[in-house]
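Listing S7. Sequence submitted for prediction.
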Amino acid sequence: MNKLYIDFIASDLAINKWQVEHCIELFDDGSTIPFISRYRKERTGSLDEVQVTQIKHYHTRFLELEKRKKSILSSIEEQGKLTDELARNIDNCVDMPKLEDIYLPYKQKRRTRASIAKERGLEPLAEMIYNHKTDCPVGEAKEFINKEIETVEQALEGARDIIAEWVSENIKVREVLREQYSKYAKLVSKKHKDLPDDVESKFSNYFNFSGSISNMPSHRVLAVLRGEREGELTTKLEVDAEYSLNFVRRIIFSNNMPLNKLCQNEIEKSIEDSYKRLLHPSIENETIRAAKEKADIDSIKVFGDNLSALLLAPPAGQKRVLAIDPGFRTGCKIVCLGEQGELLHNDTIYPHPPVNEKIQSIKKISNLVESYKIDIIAIGDGTASRETESFIKKIPMPKGIQVFSVSEDGASVYSASPLAREEFPNYDVTVRGAVSIGRRVMDPLAELVKIDPKSIGVGQYQHDVDQTLLKEMLDNTVVSCVNKVGINLNTASKHLLSYVSGIGPVLAQNIVDHRTLNGPFISRIELLKVKRLGSKVFEQCAGFLRIQNGDNLLDNTAVHPERYDLVTKIAADKKVDISTLISDNSVRDSIKIEDYITEDIGIPTLKDIVYELSKPGRDPRSTAKVMEFSQEVHTIDDLKIGMILPGIVTNITNFGAFVDIGIKQDGLVHISQLSERFISSPQEIVKLHQHVMVKVIEVDKIRSRIQLSMKNNKS
């Protein structure tokens, strides 16, 4: 990669140039972000996954910039206007807007007032006026009168149109205005003129709104722009036009001394026309677009953080689960799942109105719990959830059975997907949805990776942000979570395997096919027998795959196979076998890792190896906890101001956290109500799925809105 780009990345991320260079070399060699951050710490100086991801993002961005440069250079060269200085300016550019500013005078445009004036031969007149090469613009203009230009004023007007375009294409002018707008412009929104005065709108807070574009929270930017897109708002940027014009005047006249008063008057008119007709609309659009991009990045980061917390939510583990997708009129769909998530039985009960088959429903549940040795009951949190939970808890159960409330977000999307149809071709969507609910308790990560992350409902304005950037973030997040946990090679679905470093959908299917044909893998090295899985892919994926009870104890750790010889040497030096090295803390504590430093193995890798030996096969996630909602509250009508209620955080945005308190509507804890101290982000205080105590401070039954507070509440 161009040294210019490497210097920029290193400076922006405050890291060494060699760290950037080594990361890019690894990317070019086909290494993935999880692999680099986990197994190439010596090469990168122990850069973490976030830093490696940022370098990858910059790398991609600069590759696109380089393509654009080549296209621009080719275009200008074809016009015969490429100079050495211009080529240097393009080569040294690291910013896309600045690159486009450089190209603007050479860009093929649609027919403009300036281009028409040039066609009529008025460019020499414009040059004379712009460069103050005449004492009498009117006199010079007379020389340009012809069949197309009938008057002096028409000639001067055409010259001014050309000058106005030159002003709008001035790089310094655009840079100064861009900076001024980004610092001082206000984003203003009004109710659309076609909306009636008494309209009920979710954008009513923005019917008469004004805020600084420089520090406007991302959710407000996205809300205003969505309101405009949906035809309920009109928006614009407000700036001090005279302040802007003075900047432009100083730039345009700075190199034209001494000034001719008559030429200056003509240029002044051009500047005012250029600002109003060309510059302001262009810089306004750029500024709003830049604010939108920043808001997109902020919102996408929130989405990524929330998705990560959701995917890494505590699993209940391999338990027998009775899962219920609750409902009133259509009944409650029930499935019984085995320890591996396999469907053992499905049924429907009708314990609620209008059917009210309570006795039959109790008998069915009791029989199923006993017959299938159920450990956990999982209830979807949608319609009839609290009623179903209350009904279930009244049934006498064997000791130790836990009842979980489970988010249904995305379950319907999964149940209608090709993947669900492939898994359960003989069952309808209601059964598939109940299976998804049950499996989420057992292992949220393994189940949720099957669903489009945008359908899980843990972001803000996810349909408004840049979809390419969103997909990149969500894909990176899923990959990060999957590889952080580590995947059981012999039980993982092909969908889960596809997110493992280096594998992808095709190889995931090949692994499953090999497993089906040959039985469980007994060693990681067997992966090399999988169709199309070569040594490079093996290098990338092997450390993230686990084999329980295999031939090699290290196959159930995050120790990479490339370091097995090192572990064997350490065990030999300690005169123990590998099983003792793993099980005996005192032996591991006595290892002097400095003795094993080599050219490519340093302290970071050695520390990781010793740490992994202490916890073979251990899931880094904590254990799932049951959420107990208040028995006093079942609907919004039961809420009273001042109530202290238990809840679970279901979504986090830049403006606050949404909390499920056991009724249909989640309540909002605004960022100002999260803590007594000032915080810049809700993530400083709460995490997704965290159990909290909240106080009810406002209830709007008409709009079904609940305001909550966490100040001074135990959580």
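Caption to Listing S7: primary sequence and predicted structure tokens for the chain studied. The chain is about 45% helix and 10% strand. The radius of gyration is 33 Å.
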